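I'll show an entry:

:::
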Amino acid sequence: MSKVIGFGEKVDGYEIPVLNEREIRAAAGILFVWAFLAVLMAIMKGSFVMLKYFILAFLADFIVRVFVNPKYSPTLIIGRLIVRRQVPEYVGAAQKKFAWVIGLILVLIMLVLVVFVNSFSPITGLICLICLIFLLFESAFGICLGCLFYGWYYGKKARYCPGEVCEVRNRHEIQRISGAQMLIVLGFIVFIVLSVSLFQEKFSETPQDLFKIIKSAQAQ
């Protein structure tokens, strides 16, 4: 039983149990896509069916992660299959468990409100938004937002963070951002804002069938 129940792997060179950040990010990406589509269907079509299935799957997956062993989590297993040819990036297991407990609490609230009570409200909308942000930051940027609360809660720094962000070090030259680069970002934002204001009416037109457009042009 002790070989089944546990949290984190013992790896030579690491003083505490660790997990593979690459498979965690892959699993987060899978969950993000599913959650995004479920929320989109709820907003656009008023159908909460996919969201309810997602809540059940998310709950089951996180129960296994937190109370059994991450190595038996279905999404982490799929993530491991996807990134199995990549060199593992080890991160501390403790902060990940803390983050996943936060996720488990959020999904339990969603289970009660959306599945059992069969309701929607600003509360469920806010929780969905938080979950999407957490999953996006984990999968796209390798930033575990839930892990940030670990240090605040326990009053100590987490160890073995992705990208060595827990360690105090100087940035490499390739990581530095110049004033010119910041101006480019600002200009890009201005470009997007101007595009919305100038082309909103044109872009709001419903697209037409390409082949009908071609036939209409040939007829003329």
User: Anything to note?
Assistant: The CA atoms of residues 79 and 99 lie 18 Å apart. The chain is about 65% helix and 5% strand.
